[in-house]
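Predict the holo structure. Ligand: protoporphyrin IX containing FE.
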Amino acid sequence: MTATLPPGTRNGGPRGWPLLGNLPAFARDPLAFFTSLRDDYGDWVPWTLGPQRNVLVSRPELAGELLGAVESTFRPTELGWAVHQLLGDGVVVATGDDWRRKRALVQPAVRPRQVRAYAATMVECADALAGGWREGARIDVHREMGGLTQRIAVRTLFGSDAAGREGPIGAAMATAQRELGAEFRGLTMFLPPWVRTPGRSRMRKAVAVLDREIAHVIREHEAASARGVDRDDLLSRLLAARDEHGAPLTRKGLRDESITLYVGGHETTSTTLTWAWQLLSGAPAARARLTEELDRVLGGRLPSYEDYARLPWTRQVVQEALRMYPPIWLITAVAGPEARLGGRAVPAGTRVWTSPWSMHRDPRWFPEPESFRPERWDADAPHPVPEHAWFPFGGGPRACLGARFALVEAALILAVLGQRFHLDSGSGRAGVFPGLTLQPDRPVPATLRRPGR
Ligand code: HEM
């Protein structure tokens, strides 16, 4: 039997409960569940979630092959009511030819040349935040990073038309994202759309506010572009986008893609930063190297987009934070009739899972995986990371559209704030809470100190 299974397969997978399958173990602690599936059963593990047949794959090449096959022999997983409510038919939700067209329309808005234009806003917002901080003060790191990336998201998306609207947009987005996380965690995402819950009614109200506010911003942008005003924000780029037939995004399309870019980029980046600060707080040598690099390269001035390439250690801190705490901690796809993986046929309808969390903490690809070691990303590191072993941004045709945006944003924020402050969390350490993204399980308080202290 084992001979017909791919390399790394052992013991055939965990036994499940009648009807529920492995749902109880998965729901109790999905991160530990994935890690134990890999440790106890190998790199290809069949398991069940109620009637749903699943396979967890834990080898980099299998993850790479899976991600590469999404939109051909595999299809993306259905995302549920709350995601549809918030993101409409945006690029994250769309599939097939509809997705291809939308991805082509959105991509130009986030290509590196555009990210260069957004970098100034990122630095400006981080500088304003640092300007309000005082040495010795106590802050909640996660809250501060959430507020900062939210301001950056609203301004890079909507530019000056967002003035005065940041409050309502930010509050409605925060409610919507909370409800999205709650649906996901509570598994209510599997309830049919007509089922009403208090969470769903909060979501509907938040979406109504967003629809109103964003419709207003879109009208102002359309009027400005009719006057020939050229702007550098994301919405202006979406307005200018044309598909291969010369057709623009509709108003509904502009609304859906704006919200998609906001939701895709805000919480993922703020949690990355929160984890990076917590990790740095417990790693004096890594922190000293950060301070040295920032002093040497920037000499007290604010960074620009060009400095991103000149700050390798800062980038490696981000890369290592994304390894230890990948915000998107699982990725799944459903096998179509022709699906194959690792040389074997996968029965149609099987949901194949791969987890950046368990892959990134596998000692075979990352020696001492529980240690924060940005030096593992040095160009001449003794243990090169295998292809596809680090995939916080997914991979294949549906890989993250905002990876460059996020990496630049996180590094520039570390550079602006890290020049002036060390965020000292003392001996307190937050653990992980696997919601829609990998959140800290409690507030992350820190005392603001001068760097080098
Ligand atoms: C650290 C920050 C980020 C992380 C870890 C992250 C992670 C991911 C991952 C893993 C996927 C693929 C999901 C899957 O295949 O199921 C994805 C897709 C996506 N991301 Fe990100 N992301 C981040 C930031 C951003 C930003 C800043 C933006 C926008 C400016 C963005 C926009 C998108 C979009 C539009 C997609 C859907 C692409 C498609 O389906 O074709 N992300 N992201």
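DSSP finds 15 helices and twelve strands in the chain. The pocket of protoporphyrin IX containing FE is lined by residues 91-92, 103, 110, 260-261, 264-265, 268-269, 272, 327-328, 331, 392-394, 398, 400-402, 405-406 (CB under 6 Å).
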